[in-house]
């Protein structure tokens, strides 16, 4: 393709010069009816509705009294809105009150599960990011024998699907007596994941060496340089990888299901699965389940509200080198 | 400094920096890999010590019709899921690229991706419930028959595929969108001057330049789709009559319901091999078609 130096920033009326151009062309001049644009916007609008409606329905169901669940199943708005479902899944009501509100009376304490999930995510997000930053820096900047080979071996683990290491890791954690403990749950991803290591090394490879060298001339050691110079420079990528790690940890299901069956360490996702099974009736406790589901979405939705731009931009960063 | 003498290494410091990563890798990646390989040659019930049985597990798995059934179900899921996700994501990315720079829109599209698969499964289980679900209520009020999205063996995999398309398509679209932003603006201007319409520009300019990202996304989502578990575990538990028992779920059942750890490990290894071959072939094909272009 031949490149033309750009004559004008906006190529308006470009197809005006070619009279036989079919009207199907979306980029039409302003005077023509922009059918293509309208269709395009319509598709985006439909997508937006399709994206949001399940969330709306989840919240709407959570606000519906259990007794109205059949009557309201086709209504877009709860006829008698209530927050009782949230109260009962947060463990704020007594067993009788819970039963009266349509629950099974089994103990459900999403306040605890939310806390457990937060602990799980914060531990993994913090330590994995820190250790992978250290490792990534060493593999990018420090000289030592076998560096390239070792890095290649570590990154090869990216190709191994989770289930392959999951089975032996379960047995290992069991043999160490760490079943149903926080440490057993966070252990496999606390120190590293190949993805985080790879991601951070890529970043360190690309930052200019000058600042580090200047600090070295001033007599600072490598560790000091890392803490005082490199880490502050890497804030953006560190937050990005920590965010991604936290989101994945929040979504985790199979591993916490295997290791953390006890209520004391149960995470939100595991609790949701257990809750679905606990229903004494033929029909699951939908209003309670939707209240619990809403609670599982709120923390990540808040992340998105406050860090949305950063998350969206970080995708540009991780997806493409 | 003498040129031939290697620069002073950072051995000790480096060890300090990489020790946590190495430890994590050795304990939770390397050791389990070796252990899993060993188990695949043993009869291991989780309760007693593994007992060496040679290649028996491999022979049994390959002769197990349930294994092949699960592979078939998984493949069906992968094809529908990866296909719909990629096509819709491309369309959305192209539309966003041409119509709007709205961060709010992009942020909203990302929301389903942030939500646990378990939640996604539950919400759709409720929306698509045969009797009380909103969708069937609407069908009913329009005089249509109710649809057993999760109870009809022929519908259950398409249903789960589309649910996960809903969950991941926004994320994929944003990856494509980011790739489109990297295409030099002059390319589009040149195409416009040549009188190319939107569709032509998309297929002749955008798509070819997007190929590296397309390759990456396809490989990643293919590997990811083969590992579907959460949604199935929550919505159908592999039912009805194993119609949605994907390979990950079957491995999980063999290991933790039937305590056939050796057998499960063997299936996991076969899955690794299949994924390895698929990735290799896919990368080869994409690279081949890329070189044909230039």
TrEMBL record, chain B:
<feature type="transmembrane region" description="Helical">
    <location>
        <begin position="258"/>
        <end position="281"/>
    </location>
</feature>
<feature type="transmembrane region" description="Helical">
    <location>
        <begin position="75"/>
        <end position="96"/>
    </location>
</feature>
<keyword id="KW-0472">Membrane</keyword>
<feature type="transmembrane region" description="Helical">
    <location>
        <begin position="155"/>
        <end position="178"/>
    </location>
</feature>
<dbReference type="InterPro" id="IPR035906">
    <property type="entry name" value="MetI-like_sf"/>
</dbReference>
<feature type="transmembrane region" description="Helical">
    <location>
        <begin position="209"/>
        <end position="229"/>
    </location>
</feature>
<keyword id="KW-0812">Transmembrane</keyword>
<keyword id="KW-1003">Cell membrane</keyword>
<dbReference type="GO" id="GO:0055085">
    <property type="term" value="P:transmembrane transport"/>
</dbReference>
<dbReference type="GO" id="GO:0005886">
    <property type="term" value="C:plasma membrane"/>
</dbReference>
<dbReference type="Pfam" id="PF00528">
    <property type="entry name" value="BPD_transp_1"/>
</dbReference>
<comment type="similarity">
    <text>Belongs to the binding-protein-dependent transport system permease family.</text>
</comment>
<dbReference type="InterPro" id="IPR000515">
    <property type="entry name" value="MetI-like"/>
</dbReference>
<keyword id="KW-0813">Transport</keyword>
<dbReference type="InterPro" id="IPR051393">
    <property type="entry name" value="ABC_transporter_permease"/>
</dbReference>
<feature type="transmembrane region" description="Helical">
    <location>
        <begin position="108"/>
        <end position="128"/>
    </location>
</feature>
<feature type="transmembrane region" description="Helical">
    <location>
        <begin position="12"/>
        <end position="31"/>
    </location>
</feature>
<feature type="domain" description="ABC transmembrane type-1">
    <location>
        <begin position="71"/>
        <end position="282"/>
    </location>
</feature>
<protein>
    <submittedName>
        <fullName>Sugar ABC transporter permease</fullName>
    </submittedName>
</protein>
<keyword id="KW-1133">Transmembrane helix</keyword>
């Amino acid at each position: 393709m031949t490149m033309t130096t750009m004559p004008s920033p906006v190529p308006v009326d470009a197809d005006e010069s070619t009279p036989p151009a079919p009207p199907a062309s979306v980029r039409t001049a302003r005077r023509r009816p922009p059918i293509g644009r309208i269709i395009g916007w319509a598709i985006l609008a439909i997508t937006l509705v399709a994206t949001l409606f399940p969330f709306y329905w989840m919240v709407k169901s959570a606000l519906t009294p259990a007794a109205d669940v059949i009557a309201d199943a086709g209504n877009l708005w709860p006829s008698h809105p209530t927050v009782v479902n949230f109260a009962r899944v947060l463990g704020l009501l007594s067993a009788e009150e819970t039963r009266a509100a349509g629950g099974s009376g089994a103990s459900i304490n999403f306040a605890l599960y939310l806390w457990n999930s937060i602990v799980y995510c914060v531990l993994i997000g913090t330590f994995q990011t820190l250790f992978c930053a250290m490792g990534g820096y060493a593999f990018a900047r420090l000289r030592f024998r076998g560096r390239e080979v070792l890095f290649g071996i570590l990154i090869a683990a990216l190709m191994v699907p989770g289930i392959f290491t999951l089975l032996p890791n379960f047995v290992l954690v069991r043999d160490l007596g760490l079943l149903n403990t926080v440490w057993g749950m966070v252990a496999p991803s606390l120190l590293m994941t190949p993805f985080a290591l790879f991601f951070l090394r890529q970043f360190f490879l690309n930052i200019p060496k000058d600042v580090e060298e200047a600090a070295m001339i001033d007599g600072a050691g490598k560790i000091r340089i890392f803490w005082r110079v490199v880490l502050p420079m890497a804030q953006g990528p560190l937050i990005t990888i920590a965010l991604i790690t936290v989101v994945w940890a929040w979504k985790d299901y199979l591993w916490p299901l295997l290791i953390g069956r006890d209520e004391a360490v149960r995470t939100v996702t595991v609790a949701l699965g257990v809750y679905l099974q606990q229903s004494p009736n033929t029909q699951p406790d939908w209003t309670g389940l939707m209240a619990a589901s809403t609670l599982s979405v709120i923390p990540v939705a808040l992340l998105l509200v406050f860090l949305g731009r950063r998350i969206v931009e970080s995708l540009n960063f991780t997806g493409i080198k | 400094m003498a040129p031939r003498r290697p620069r002073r290494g950072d051995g000790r410091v480096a060890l300090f920096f990489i020790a946590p990563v190495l430890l994590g890798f050795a304990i939770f990646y390397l050791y389990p890999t070796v252990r899993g390989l060993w188990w695949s040659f043993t009869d291991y019930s989780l309760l007693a010590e593994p007992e060496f049985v040679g290649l028996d597990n491999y022979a049994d798995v390959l002769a197990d019709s349930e294994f092949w059934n699960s592979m078939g179900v998984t493949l069906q899921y992968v094809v529908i899921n990866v296909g719909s996700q990629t096509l819709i994501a491309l369309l959305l990315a192209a539309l966003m690229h041409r119509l709007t720079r709205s961060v709010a829109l992009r942020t909203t599209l990302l929301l389903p991706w942030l939500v646990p698969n378990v939640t996604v499964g539950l919400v759709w289980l409720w929306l698509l419930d045969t009797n009380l679900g909103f969708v069937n209520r609407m069908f009913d009020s329009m005089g249509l028959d109710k649809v057993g999205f999760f109870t009809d063996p022929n519908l259950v995999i398409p249903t789960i595929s589309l649910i996960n398309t809903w969950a991941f398509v926004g994320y994929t679209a944003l990856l494509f969108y980011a790739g489109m932003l990297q295409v030099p603006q002059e390319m589009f201007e040149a195409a416009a001057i040549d009188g190319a319409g939107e569709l032509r520009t998309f297929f002749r300019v955008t798509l070819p330049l997007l190929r590296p990202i397309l390759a990456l996304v396809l490989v990643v989502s293919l590997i990811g789709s083969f590992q579907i578990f959460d949604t199935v575990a929550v919505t159908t538990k592999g039912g009805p009559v194993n119609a949605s028992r994907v390979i990950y779920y079957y491995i999980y059942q063999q290991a933790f319901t039937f305590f056939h750890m050796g057998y499960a490990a063997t299936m996991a290894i076969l899955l690794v091999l299949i994924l390895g071959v698929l990735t290799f072939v896919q990368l080869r094909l994409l690279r081949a078609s890329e070189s044909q272009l230039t």
